[in-house]
Amino acid sequence: MDVVELDQPAAFGLERCGAPEPNWPGMRTAILCELGASLTPLSAYEITDRLSLRYGRKRHANSVYRALRTLISSNDITLIESWRKFTPMTKAQAGCAWLLCERCETVKPVAMSETVGALARLASGHSFTATKIVLEIRGTCASCHAG
Ligand SMILES: [Zn+2]
């Protein structure tokens, strides 16, 4: 099994954009900072509300969605499909599996390239063209399990 521990996504988001700026840094940077500052993935509406509050001006969900699509295309963030929420990621985390804690709502990326390759071959074997393979495992993280 090719399970490899990867960096926590939230730490990456903060490292990437630094501390949140008092002035409006632009939508994509602001989103990365907001996701990086959060310990858990955020929905588009949560991001919109936080940006409006932080920068003292109403932000619109349509603008946030547009920027989110760009950030997904560039592999700067990913959508946690099970929860319809977003989290920062590194390019190395593209195609990884995500462990989702249903108690504390943290997510953890784990590399599973052999599994993703096997699933792609399975789809291909059925003459099915996979455009995206989503691996999300829901359960309880070690911290919550211990507590
Ligand atoms: Zn947990």
Structural account:
The chain is an alpha+beta fold and 147 residues long. It folds into two domains: 2-90, Winged helix-like DNA-binding domain superfamily/Winged helix DNA-binding domain (Arc Repressor Mutant, subunit A, Orthogonal Bundle), CATH 1.10.10.10; 92-146, Dna Ligase, domain 1 (2-Layer Sandwich). 43% of the residues lie in helices and 16% in strands. The chain binds zinc ion (ZN). Zinc ion binds at residues 101, 103-104, 106, 141, 143-144.
Topology:
Elements: E1 4-5, H1 9-17, H2 27-37, H3 44-55, H4 61-73, E2 77-80, E3 85-88, E4 97-101, E5 107-111, H5 113-125, E6 136-139, H6 142-146
Parallel strand pairs: 4-6
Antiparallel strand pairs: 1-5, 2-3, 4-5
Helix pairs in contact: 1-2, 3-4
Zinc ion binds at residues 101, 103-104, 106, 141, 143-144.
